[in-house]
Amino acid sequence: MFPTAPRGTHRASGRAVIDYRGLTAPVGRGVGGAAMVGAVSAAAVLTGGAAATAQAPVASSVGTVRGIAPSVAPATQSQFTSVTLRLGARGAAVSHLQQQLNAHGASLTVDGVFGSATLRAVRSQQSGAGIGVDGVVGPKTWGSLTGAIATKPAASSSQPTLRFGSRGSAVTTLQKQLNASGASISVDGVFGRGTASAVRALQSAAGIGVDAVVGPKTWAALSGGVAVGGGTSVPSAPSASVTQPKLRHGDRGAAVTTLQKSLNASGASISVDGVFGRGTASAVRALQSAAGIGVDGIVGPRTWNALGSDVRISADAGGRDEDRKPVSGVSVRGQAIIDAARSQLGARYHWGGESPSTGYDCSGLVHYAYNQAGVNLSRKTAKGYVFGGRIISRSEAKPGDLVAYTGNDYGHMGIYVGNGRIIDASGSRQQVVERSMWNAPHVFVTYR
């Protein structure tokens, strides 16, 4: 019998889903062939042995199979790197991924399970490589891992890694440099929301991973003349984006009109009115997701370049006006809320947290996802969100609405995905998860 992951510790039951897509290595030739080799190989795969193949020695060499070094033959490596991996995947391909991440500075247990620690390491690798930070291991992430191991720029070797919540003289230095690059934030030595917003703007302008974590590439961008407010092109960016301004939610004018026409040419269906509203923001995020770049809704050099490429916005990925429906029947705003919440799957649970750098509690995830989708909600408790919105029946609920569990004085809530599923920051599982609703008293709440 194949072992399954332990069920979550939440007191209510739910369906367990196991993803075997990462289990791609051959495990022997079955009963008609070398049965013992097949058994040993299968055991090696299930326990994370990336080197188990059907070419392993026969029964007399079982001890050799167990002692195989973790290096992988080129053909097997190619087989692994053709697999897309994400949170929940298991098997030999995940073991190979963990070994590659460790070779790039991570410190993971090579157990063949794509859990939250592996997810954090993947996101860190993506940010350092300047590719889309989505936690999904596809061709670009595999390429960054299997190429030459990059070394940190010498210019930034003395600078610490800073993130939301950091304090001290290094943060003061960061804030001064951000202001020198065009930001306008308080220089108080505290890495708060204003500083995080300025860091994201800088990262977007520089065309690097937008994660609000200040590492070597962000320090290098600060010292390289990249402007936070736009207008200064990234030296390595193609010339197509040099003359285009940075745009974001709330902007107006001819540049926004040009953006909207380009988005429609890429598969969106939005009004061309020169106003960067929710529909335009949703289309921008859909394009960024399709292009595999940082999904932040800000149109910088990389987004302009994606608009000039053959990247297409799929019909069900957002990119429709507020009064239209994607093919799936989910409203643009609802889909944007769900996409923002899904981008944080695997993020750690933290009481009071509300950002990728701090982690989330249940209401913090709601605050993050709604505001990322352009719905301006102030920070409240779960109970505060229940009575700040409108309680509706289940038949009225739509994806993107909220599900609040009434126990413990409205002590928990999640974002409704549809079909009886929610995304929530789970205290019992200590991370953001997508799962089936459980049988406990609850209400649906909408801010539509």
From TrEMBL:
PROSITE patterns, A to Z: NLPC_P60 (PS51935)
Pfam entry (one): PG_binding_1
Top-level taxon of the source organism: Bacteria
Listed GO MF terms: cysteine-type peptidase activity
Family annotation (InterPro entries): NLP_P60_dom, Papain-like_cys_pep_sf, Peptidase_C40, Peptidoglycan-bd-like, PGBD-like_sf, PGBDSf
Biological process annotations from GO: proteolysis
NlpC/P60 domain location: 331-448
Keywords associated with the record: Hydrolase, Protease, Thiol protease
Protein family (similarity comment): Belongs to the peptidase C40 family.
PANTHER family, per the entry: MUREIN DD-ENDOPEPTIDASE MEPH-RELATED
The protein's name: Hydrolase
Gene source species: Brachybacterium vulturis
